[in-house]
Amino acid sequence: MAMVSRTALACLLLAVVAGAAPAWLCRVELERFADARAVAATGARVVMCLDGYCLVQVDASAIQSLERAGLGFELLDVEPRDKSYVYVMPAPGFDRRVLARHGRVLTEDPEGVVLATDADGILELNRLPVELAGVGNEPMPLAGRASALEPLVVPDSLVRELVGRVSPDTLETQLLRMREFRTRYSTTDSCRSAVEWFRQRLAAFGCDSTYLDTFRADYAPSAIGVKTGTLYPDEVFVVMGHVDATSQQPQTNTPGSEDNASGAGAVLELARVMRDMSFQKTVWFIGFSGEEQGLVGSDSFARHAHERGDSILLAVNFDMISYSSSHPDWMQMYGCTEGVPSVTWLDSFLAQADTFTDLQAERVVEGTPARRSDHYSFWKYGFPFIRGGYKDRTPHYHTIGDTIGPPGYVECGTNNIPMYAEVVKALVATVAKLAGAEPMTGVKQMPNVERRMTNGPTVMRAAELARLGGRVFDSHGREVGEHRESLAAGVYFLCRKAGGATGRVMVVR
């Protein structure tokens, strides 16, 4: 690749002095993701990391620092904050030259093309078999919030009961209902209605609260449902699928059965199955909008979660999980090793799938994740993810042919409801185990004290227990509040958040 010459660099710097060009979008070459931190140390704002390079916003001083650091770079465009950029990932066999009709090609790589475009260009791109990821202005944190995998002890008998509740008929009914909205293109009133329906279903399925997350006035909002954890409310699992869809006729006809009523339906079925369950850790159920326009809704949500300091342990994303052709029982599950590694979480999902379902799930580990769906927004802002998607891509991807067809029929979008149900069963088992599913009761439950429990209780006096901190429950599962130093003799259960330690304590007087 031809890098900017010293003469061109000097001219650009002179332009800065003259006040003509205060900032640029720049491509900086990387050997590995970790090198992006060295790029950020120059004063450059890293806004997207791709395979082998990153996109940054730079001013004159940052350009000089990149030059001094010996980093290979290319200036792509002037005044990036006033423009709209997307990373375009074409379907296999697509002629990339078509993209130049809908914007300016700035740079490209084997997976995709960086395009400068506008709202009209986005609309035209949404008519094509391509996927979009927006290139924003906010810098990436470049430091993740790695979370430990600490499954809570949930009886296998309960998990099997919950998995058995997953209904292929209900899943198909939900796909048909989403088709009735005719179009779910993000800028339409029909999509707004679809999102509101999604929110209402979450409310009917027992979420503690539901709300609409508005991220742009011209787009339908995203729908959020929350079940607050009974013991660890600040530790959050996110389960998501995007509600919006596109086709060659985006504003009038987007059936979007496979892409992505299937993923959104998985979220709803999880909520339905768990309607009479509570969780020890908080679960957010999300149907995003704006995915087809460049992950717009999820980017806004994940950025705000990062700014708030939310403790998202894991984001689970499903996108296109109801179609197969040559692999009738297979789907793919993805994790990554760079930024915020998620391989441990991936292996946990696969273990639950193997134990509780007939799903054939292929394990796929990436370095940096593909920018092809909403999971990327969470990884970008420092949260671990796993993603489930197709093994076989429907030939009617992003077309009006993405509808429900007969089992095994390949000229459609959804053709394998049994496999789809197995995917959802694996999701149910994973969330039940990791978030600590338990039947709802009128009494606040104690933590499942079998985890890390010793053979016998630790013996101590009440005053010693009071100094330990953590949460204490009596033998009936009632939480003991203040004045623990005056507890009566007996057996209590101590839960300390640091390290997740739990165990029995015998108080003596």
> Can you tell me the overall shape?
globular
CATH topology of the largest domain: Aminopeptidase
Biggest sheet strand order reads 9-10-13-11-14-17-15-16
* Sequence stretches where pLDDT stays below 50 over 5 or more residues: 1-8, 443-456
Distance between the termini: 77 Å
Q: What is the total number of structural domains?
A: 3
Mean pLDDT: 88
Using the 3D structure, state the CATH architecture of the largest domain: 3-Layer(aba) Sandwich
- Provide the β-strand percentage band: 25-35%
Number of strands: 23
Structural class: alpha+beta
Number of helices: 13
CATH level 1 name of the largest domain:
Alpha Beta
Annotated CATH homologous superfamily of the largest domain:
Zn peptidases
Task: Evaluate the radius of gyration.
Answer: 25 Å
Describe the protein in words:
Helix 5 packs antiparallel against helix 12, helix 6 packs across helix 8 (257-273) and helix 8 (257-273) packs across helix 12. 48% of the residues are buried. It contains 13 helices and 23 strands. Strand 2 and strand 3 (53-58) form a beta hairpin. It starts with 5 loop residues before the first helix and ends with a strand. With 509 residues, the protein is an alpha+beta fold. The strands form five sheets. It has an eight-stranded mixed sheet, sandwiched between helices. It has a five-stranded mixed sheet with strand order 19-23-22-20-21. It has helices at 6-17, 36-40, 60-68, 119-125, 156-164, 168-179, 189-204, 257-273, 296-308, 343-356, 375-380, 417-435, 462-468, and strands spanning 24-29, 45-50, 53-58, 73-78, 84-90, 104-108, 113-117, 130-135, 209-213, 222-227, 232-242, 277-279, 281-288, 311-319, 330-336, 360-366, 385-390, 437-439, 458-461, 471-473, 479-480, 490-495, 502-508.
